[in-house]
Amino acid sequence: MDKLMVFSGNANPQLAKDICKYLKISLADALVERFSEGEIRVKINENVRGRDVFVVQPTCPPPNENLMELLIMLDALRRASAQRITAVVPYFGYARQDRKDQPRVPITAKLVANLLTVAGANRILTMDLHAGQIQGFFDIPVDHLFAVGVINDYFSKNKFKDIVVVSPDVGSIKMARAYAKRMSAGLAIIDKRRISPEKTEVMHILGEVEGRDALIVDDLIATGSSLIEAVETLKAAKARSVRAAITHGVLSGPAVERIDKCKDLQELIITDSIPLPKEKQHPRIKVLSIADLLGEAIKRIRTEESVSSLFD
Questions:
Q1: Full-prediction pTM beyond 0.70?
Q2: Residue 173 and residue 97 in one domain
Q3: CA nearest 140: which of 158, 152, 157, 125?
Q4: What is the domain range of residue 248?
Q5: 263-269 contacts at long range (C-beta below 8 A, 24 or more positions apart)
Q6: Residues 141 and 153 in one domain
Q7: What is the maximum alpha-carbon separation in the chain?
Q8: What's the chain's average pLDDT?
Q9: Regarding beta strands 123-127 and 84-89, do their DSSP bridges make them parallel or antiparallel, or are they unpaired?
Q10: CA angle, 106 as apex, 100 and 111 as ends, to 5°?
Q11: Is 115 helix (H, G, I), strand (E, B) or coil?
């Protein structure tokens, strides 16, 4: 463990500090700032030659700035002769375009995977990818963690009764099934049709939710429109209460305003994969820490132990 070093960009320094606290090490020193014209300036202020280096940097808003910071840090560490460089990207942005579903569109998830590899990453540590197949876009090892254990612990302590886990769309069924299995809960699916990239039309619910405590699970919340539609649909179907557990709280645009207006949503649970600024904090938004989970994964990668056992 004496060769282990953890660096952080400006995307989520608090998460990096919490990870280091779990690992009982100090956050390594790096300068990440801007030149006068806005270009990113990086300087690694510690010797990393022959070290096992981890860079904590989710590509959360502003995604372009944070992604570029990560790429430049990886390049600096590679040129400084780090033995192995692991990009710890709790929230992997640009993942929603993971296939050509229309003519003349990019596959940005593959593009970003290529950029990270070329910049110098030898390994990727991430969490709840928008699509599991994105792991295959990398030609380097990918450790894909899940927030289900952290969220399940929260609900176990609060002892909610008669929970039914709800998938907000067909694409999230696998995640919802994992939650339902962990919680020994029922499973329901909201069948919806997407009108545009920002708007959906809810069709109907598959499963029994009447008189039960519904828990909507998903990988990310952006503007919140799909979540609010799902909440309204579940309440119309006479669910006793509605909560949501969503790993990555992007909360862009009018998301917080929509959550504030939707009184039927009793609680929104997110993780600190993305920092929650003060202006987006709300009494019904609960943030759970994934620092210990990431810290344990980093520890096991360093000591060449199994990371998959964290899923059990």
A1: yes
A2: no
A3: 125
A4: 148-288
A5: 264/231, 264/232, 264/235, 265/227, 265/228, 265/231, 266/241, 266/242, 267/243, 268/221, 268/227, 268/243, 268/244, 269/151, 269/154, 269/243, 269/244, 269/245
A6: no
A7: 61
A8: 93
A9: parallel
A10: 115
A11: helix
Question: Which DSSP symbol is given to 264?
Answer: T
135 and 173 inside one domain = no
202-217, pLDDT tens digit by residue? 668 999 999 999 999 9
Q: Any idea which residue has 């570029």 for tokens?
A: 68
137 and 155 together in one domain: no
Which of 186, 244, 246 lies closest to 222 in space, CA to CA?
246
- Whether residue 97 is found in the same domain as residue 117: yes
3-state class (DSSP) for residue 215: strand
Q: Kindly state whether residues 39 and 138 are assigned to the same domain.
A: yes
CB under 8 Å to 151, separation ≥6 — which residues?
Answer: 179, 217, 245, 269, 271, 288
Structure tokens at 167: 């998938």
Residue 287 pLDDT more than 80? yes
> In degrees rounded to 5, what are phi and psi of residue 55?
-110, 115
Q: What is the CATH number of the domain that holds 116?
A: 3.40.50.2020
**Lowest-confidence pick of 74-83, 240-249, 303-312:** 303-312
Number of domains in the chain: 2
Q: Which residues are catalytic?
A: 192
pLDDT 10s digits, 233-245: 999 999 999 999 9
Residues 103 and 162 in one domain: no
Together in a domain, 177 and 277: yes
Q: Which amino acid is at 270?
A: I
